[in-house]
Amino acid sequence: MSNALLSKENAMSDQFPVVIGICLDAEAIWTGKLPADAYRPVLLSNGAFAIKEGLKPVLELLDHHGIKATFFIPGITADTYPEALAEIRRRGHELGSHTYSHRSVLGLTPAEERQEIARGIEAVERNGGVRPTAWRSASWEWSKHTLDYILEEGVTVSCNFQDRIRPYRHFRDGLPTPVVELPVQWHLADAPFFLYGGDVQRRIRPAAEAESVWMEEFDATYDWPGAFFHLTLHVQLIGHPGRLKMLDRCLTHMRGRNRTRFLTCAEAALLVE
Amino acid sequence: MSNALLSKENAMSDQFPVVIGICLDAEAIWTGKLPADAYRPVLLSNGAFAIKEGLKPVLELLDHHGIKATFFIPGITADTYPEALAEIRRRGHELGSHTYSHRSVLGLTPAEERQEIARGIEAVERNGGVRPTAWRSASWEWSKHTLDYILEEGVTVSCNFQDRIRPYRHFRDGLPTPVVELPVQWHLADAPFFLYGGDVQRRIRPAAEAESVWMEEFDATYDWPGAFFHLTLHVQLIGHPGRLKMLDRCLTHMRGRNRTRFLTCAEAALLVE
Amino acid sequence: MSNALLSKENAMSDQFPVVIGICLDAEAIWTGKLPADAYRPVLLSNGAFAIKEGLKPVLELLDHHGIKATFFIPGITADTYPEALAEIRRRGHELGSHTYSHRSVLGLTPAEERQEIARGIEAVERNGGVRPTAWRSASWEWSKHTLDYILEEGVTVSCNFQDRIRPYRHFRDGLPTPVVELPVQWHLADAPFFLYGGDVQRRIRPAAEAESVWMEEFDATYDWPGAFFHLTLHVQLIGHPGRLKMLDRCLTHMRGRNRTRFLTCAEAALLVE
Amino acid sequence: MSNALLSKENAMSDQFPVVIGICLDAEAIWTGKLPADAYRPVLLSNGAFAIKEGLKPVLELLDHHGIKATFFIPGITADTYPEALAEIRRRGHELGSHTYSHRSVLGLTPAEERQEIARGIEAVERNGGVRPTAWRSASWEWSKHTLDYILEEGVTVSCNFQDRIRPYRHFRDGLPTPVVELPVQWHLADAPFFLYGGDVQRRIRPAAEAESVWMEEFDATYDWPGAFFHLTLHVQLIGHPGRLKMLDRCLTHMRGRNRTRFLTCAEAALLVE
């Protein structure tokens, strides 16, 4: 079964774990980057595409392939669109937390960061009916306090670091913590190919180019002992017709390799002792 | 007939609407971005290409395919090149408004924005002989006053928002307004591939790359229930020989699908109840 | 003969003019952009490549194809490398002027601009043995005084404006001047694909990508009544082995069309009445 | 033998030297660019990938092809990861120096630069067991003091300048020095295609694109009398599965040409009289 939990003993030799982490940012992608963007309705509409158009076909595509993914949702998005969380959960996907307002930790005080983490988790729990244990920061950055704060909130999976292509456990003061890292890579995300607008660097690449980067990495990682494959998507970017056809081809390709096992973050974290 | 108005009943099931929105900015693309650019004759010549070379073959290509498009024209361009508006109208295309001086709303006071909208519409009406009802902002942005101001001027079509891939009606205070949105997408415009010069981020991509992005999206959107396809062009960018050959291939490809119906903005707006 | 001067009568109907304008900037490409770069020896070495490696194979490739080009040379480069000018002239190419120190006019006073133009022409004349009549600004920009200043210096060809794809005459106060414009295009230059280093936006694209942009434009322009093709190169960018192979393919392709006639700037300017 | 030292007499006619210079920056790539980055653990993890994942397969790939490379290592990285230097040396590669803390010389006082050079060489010697004689600056830049400082430290190979595609000797006051330059090129490095994160310009290109740029240049340079081929890699960028497969293809392609000889920097410097 494609979503069956891997048995620990042979996880790394007989099976190849694939994790699909999907950000449902909606407007928070822009308001989190720059507060002044809250007064730019067209820019916000670029994020709202995730709710109004992109989410439904993304969920249908995952269903079509029988894949359970993990959705990372800012608290403000959860408070604004609770029905989206209900639908994601109804289809059996994992709900993860993605801070409250999608502000980068680089501009926050420690107290603000702690509140962003706590409020973000509460909002997903309140609207989604289950307390999230997987967490991703806004913009893939940590402070020196982040590990402490996510431990306080019961987080057990982080999807942020870029130093490995296999899962590992975070340590503090030389001792193992409950937090498992499922490392990510910029080139295995959709944003570097498709993010456009506001004050970010602007890029629009053909869907086929993202496909070639992801699949060349998938095929090579597949043969790398102990490695896994972690793809990071954003509903507002991937949820367009042509890009969804490309994602469909990627999922078909990955399913065609017999050791591939799609796992949620919670499932993948169990691979680490 | 390719430009026949769709009957509302079966528009979304039997026919696939395609809207071609073309900006005729000329020098305003640069003077609107930065007033100091008014003293850079070579940079302005980059925009003047639209009038001096690009417009004629663009119009001929549309005639060749029997397609009526909507041209969005800044008021200052209409005042400077009235013969261009006459020629566009003579060929049966729709004249739309694109503010007066192509300045982004982000730098305007409310009074300035109101004047940009009103003067821009007046200039197109004065020079083109018909009052435009389709409107696009400069740089695809709105303020919180924009809807009020365009309603005052009788606008009934906006081509600005990015939250849907199907037309919808704008509401105010919970009530429907006369303004229909025909949403756009950055990746379905020519600027991200070809805009170069001045203080913008510089990009020159092969025409074949824009073609692959646009046509992969067209083909996938064609099968998306209720969706439409909206391509945004700029005469000074698309009106070069190699890019026009690419556009010719795109138009041929789109006409080759039997549900395709090319519509002006005014025609497409009638699809929304 | 590929370099035969076109007869005016049938120039635009029977023959397709191609102009190759080549900048020999050397270190001036960097010192002209930012004076502080004069203290960055490695950055300057990036420009010195033009003299130390690139020029010889560029000249040999042009000889191989029997093509005469126009070289635009900053005065400071002419003063530093007089033997380069001698070699270019010995092979029969045209010597053009490219300001004295390759500083953009946007940062100059009128007096400075006048001096840049006059000193630049003098330096090429002093070192090359012939007074240049073709002129290109640094960074493709003019001030409102530029036409006056280049007329004072006897310039008869400008390669700066971007508003046409056919040569035309500059007018002043409604009267024709001796200056003919041979318009250029950013996408028909090598810099947008290969310029890298210093404080500029950094781009490294495969040679095949520039080739596809240039040749798709060549092929389409070839059939455009009255148009010509104007390619702009920089010795420090195009003079690398892989890129020269690409240029070789381009020249072969262009020579393969029977109406193609390679002209120097001085020859091409005679096409305009 | 692929690593046999070329005899000087026929080096440039019968054999084609290929040098692989590999930076092992680890976290220093980020802390050197901006000190504040020292507090960004996720960004640092991007560099740590070099040690934790990338180095081992890079070394195995080189072994597989029987190629000896030169590794350029910042002193701070050598002090932090001495076992990495031991492993590189155990496999027979050359250890080079790459400043102490990977700070660009553009922001250093002369005293700071001198210390960066001296401490960097000492750290590699202390941890690697051999004093390095090959040196690369951080960010490929020199000051006017750099030649003096590296001469003081016994450096005999510099891999920094971009003005030639053949090795040459540095002169001072008209006299030859012991320092040989093995020139580099931006387009023959991996960073322009793969560097992402922090405050740099962000680029993620398919591995196949770097391959096409490098191999078109290799094939063309191979036939250029007296030239050599110098590829610059970074373990944190090239050490990903898909990119390593691409590098494998490149090495195979280069080995397939019968004049190809892979040399370390020390070996290649002996080619210069």
What does it look like?
- The structure is a homotetramer of 273-residue chains.
- The first copy, chain A, is α/β, with parallel strands linked by helices.
- The first copy, chain A, has one domain (8-269): Alpha-Beta Barrel (TIM Barrel), CATH 3.20.20.
- The first copy, chain A, contains twelve helices and nine strands.
- In chain A, strand 4 (134-135), helix 7 and strand 5 (157-158) form a beta-alpha-beta unit.
- In chain A, helix 3 runs parallel beside helix 11 and helix 9 runs parallel beside helix 11.
- The relative contact order of chain A is 0.20.
- Chains in contact: A-B, A-D, B-C, C-D.
- The A-B interface holds A 39-43, 45-46, 48-49, 52-53, 57, 194, 196-197, 201-202, 204, 206-208, 240-242, 244-246 and B 106, 137, 140-144, 146, 160-165, 183, 185-187, 192-193, 201, 209, 212-213, 216-217, 219-221, 223-224, 227.
Biggest sheet statistics of chain A: 5 strands, parallel
Q: Which quaternary structure do these chains form?
A: homotetramer
CATH architecture of chain A: Alpha-Beta Barrel
Q: What global shape of chain A is seen?
A: globular
What is the straight-line distance between the termini of chain A? 23 Å
| Residue windows where pLDDT falls under 50 for at least 5 positions of chain A | 1-12
Topology:
4 copies of one chain form a homotetramer.
Chain A lengths: L10 H4 L1 E8 L4 H4 L9 H25 L4 E4 L1 H6 L1 H9 L3 E4 L12 H19 L5 E2 L10 H7 L4 E2 L9 E5 L2 E7 L9 H4 L12 H16 L6 E6 H4 L2 H15 L4 E4 L1 H5 L4
Parallel strand pairs in A: 1-2, 1-8, 1-9, 2-3, 4-5, 5-7
Antiparallel strand pairs in A: 6-7
